[in-house]
Amino acid sequence: MLIIRLFLIFAKIGAFSIGGGYAMLPFIQREIIDNNHYLNLKEFSDILAISQMTPGPIAINSATFVGYKIAGVLGSVAATLGIVLPSFIMIIIIASFFVKFYDKKEVKAAFSGIRPAVLGLLAAAAYSVTITNVIDLKSIFIFILSFGILFIKKMDPIIVLIISAVLGIILY
């Protein structure tokens, strides 16, 4: 029953989230932490960190790791299929009609409305991850340094992750 429930939770997230993996994170958090209490915020934050470091889309990685944490390998498979299948099916359907309707003003207006909502979802995910992980002066230092290196120096994110990991080892 838990496997089916995981599939349905992630299928709902996959079906009703727009904007990619980071936009899905607030929905995953609400369903897994707030509504079902399968994980706490710290566990979810750890899963997000691992999901960002592993190859692949963050929403799929998160679903896979959350499913595994909750119900093992079968939970992992159920959550991953749940988050992927709705998008896959919708893309196949939309692709067959998109060329016909792309130039319509209603479609362009809908995309114009969706873009700011996606930005809001991304901001909510960033806020949630920040309040969970920036907990003391050392973590604030690593956050500010990483942010500065990424956005001011335009350094490769992989290098920033390595620097942050080394700082974490040294400081903690």
UniProtKB/TrEMBL annotation:
Domain of life per record: Bacteria
Molecular function as annotated in GO: chromate transmembrane transporter activity
Signal peptide, first to last residue: none
Pfam (any one): Chromate_transp
GO CC terms of this entry: plasma membrane
Compartments in which it is found: Cell membrane
Keywords, sorted A to Z: Cell membrane, Membrane, Transmembrane, Transmembrane helix
Keyword NAD set for record: no
Membrane topology field: Multi-pass membrane protein
TM region positions: 6-27, 77-102, 114-135, 141-171
Family: Belongs to the chromate ion transporter (CHR) (TC 2.A.51) family.
Protein name (Swiss-Prot/TrEMBL): Chromate transporter
